[in-house]
């Protein structure tokens, strides 16, 4: 990929799901980054596979998996629609939104690479202040090492 020019907008990538923490993180990012025109918003929702959501394979699995998959697709569509509505309510209309099937850790790392994100925002999922600090610190170190070793 070509080097970024100074006129390109920096990407703020937000991992979203249907949790209260995710909504808070999205609102926080919209309030802190999007009064400025230098940022571009990308929303990523990681959708589990039907087999990982059900967690079994055996008699009856073939009948239930399409139903579970359909429900997961509906949930993903609702999550994106809710997030886009929050963006619209805060006058952020240039939004890229994507649903990717897979483990959220891998999906978010891949999305950071794909969109060359400058900032990744995720909700806390109820971690206390110390655990949250350690998690953010480790995430930054791992991300920095990933790009250093390339």
Automatic annotation (TrEMBL):
CDD domains: USP_At3g01520-like. It comes from the Eukaryota. Pfam families: Usp (PF00582). Residues 11-135 form the UspA domain. PANTHER family: ADENINE NUCLEOTIDE ALPHA HYDROLASES-LIKE SUPERFAMILY PROTEIN. This is Universal stress protein A-like protein isoform C. It comes from Glycine soja. The lineage of its organism: Eukaryota, Viridiplantae, Streptophyta, Embryophyta, Tracheophyta.
């Amino acid at each position: 990929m070509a080097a970024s020019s100074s006129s390109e907008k920096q990407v703020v990538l937000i991992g979203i799901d249907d949790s209260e923490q995710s909504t808070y993180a999205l609102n926080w990012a919209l309030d802190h980054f999007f009064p400025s025109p230098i940022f571009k918003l990308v929303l990523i929702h990681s959708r589990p596979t039907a087999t990982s959501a059900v967690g079994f394979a055996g008699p009856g699995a073939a009948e239930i998996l399409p139903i579970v998959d359909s429900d997961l697709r509906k949930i993903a569509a609702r999550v994106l629609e809710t997030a886009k509505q929050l963006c619209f309510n805060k006058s952020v209309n240039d939004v890229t939104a994507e649903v990717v099937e897979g483990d959220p850790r891998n999906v978010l790392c891949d999305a950071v690479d794909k969109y060359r994100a400058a900032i990744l925002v995720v909700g806390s999922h109820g971690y206390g202040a110390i655990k949250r600090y350690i998690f953010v610190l480790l995430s930054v170190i791992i991300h920095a090492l990933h790009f250093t070793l390339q």
